[in-house]
Amino acid sequence: MTYVVTDNCIMCKYTDCVEVCPVDCFYEGENTLVIHPDECIDCGVCEPECPADAIRPDTEPDMEKWVEFNRKYSEQWPVITQKKDPMPTAAEMDGTPDKLEKYFSPLPGDGD
């Protein structure tokens, strides 16, 4: 099992999860985060820390695409290990549907 970041993180990018991760398996894109599924130790401490409820275990239905999404971008983006401010749009974008199709940017973030 692994945990993955889903589309509700897009345009929010809260980093509360990053701060509690014991193995530094979060990677930063321009407007979202991902978890490297092969580095995640399945401890689950990140899931309740996410204000946007965007982190899910891969055992939930239809998570295969999110596992591959997280794997792909974690291999391209820089690691992030420290908490940062969320995106300015975080509060208004939290819960917006179809964020992957409408707002996702494949560009890397700054990392640490």
Automatic annotation (TrEMBL):
- Where does this protein come from, organism-wise? Paracoccus amoyensis
Q: What is this protein called?
A: Ferredoxin
Q: Please list the residue ranges annotated as the 4Fe-4S ferredoxin-type domain.
A: 1-30, 31-60
Q: Which PROSITE patterns match?
A: 4FE4S_FER_1, 4FE4S_FER_2
User: What InterPro entries does this protein map onto?
Assistant: 4Fe4S_Fe-S-bd (IPR017896), 4Fe4S_Fe_S_CS (IPR017900), 7Fe_ferredoxin (IPR000813), Fd_C (IPR022569), FdxA (IPR054829), RnfB_subfamily (IPR050294)
What is a single molecular function from GO for this protein?
Answer: 3 iron, 4 sulfur cluster binding
Its biological function?
Answer: Ferredoxins are iron-sulfur proteins that transfer electrons in a wide variety of metabolic reactions.
Q: Which PANTHER family match?
A: FERREDOXIN, OXIDOREDUCTASE
* Keywords of the record: 3Fe-4S, 4Fe-4S, Electron transport, Iron, Iron-sulfur, Metal-binding, Repeat, Transport
**Which segments carry the region annotation Disordered?**
86-112
